[in-house]
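Handout, page 2. Input:
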Amino acid sequence: MSELTLTLLRLGLLALLWIFIFSVVGVLRTDIYGTAVSRRGQRKALKQAEKQDRKATSRRTPVPAAGAAGAAGAAGAAGAAATTPEAAARKGRGRGKGSPTTLVVTEGPLTGTSLPLRSGGILIGRNPECALVLDDDYASGRHCRIHPDPSGRDGWVVEDLGSTNGTFMGRDRLTGSRPVEIGTTLRIGKTVLELRG
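Output:
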């Protein structure tokens, strides 16, 4: 082999070695810090979630007819509205302080953001798949979830999904899942969330 061929082989192997090192560092960084999320992406995801909720609500909202038929239609529509998942879930939740309907960010980068509680639940974390995407170093990819209580006794419950830094309900660190009501505050890193009616 000529000296030029050997030099080119050495340079090629060195370049491959550096590419391998950078790819390993990138994977480790993603595992440690999670997926990088842009604020523009957060706003877009929140707007899409709100838009879907509005569409779902408008499909379920009955339009009363005019006159005597309207009164009968409104009575029938009221019965139909009570059979929607959200209405059925709210019906069983009216005990205690009250059943929350909205999640509001009161502290942190997303202060002022509000999301309606959906029967499918709300996933909170750093991953773009979450309904509320937090740009917080202390939040895990899939940090916690707020969803209707499967047993139907407690209305809504919050469940920590094995987050590294924990979900705090008031001053207590959440383990497993616990029922929530209007006025309950949750803290995830620098973000504080409040459940409102």
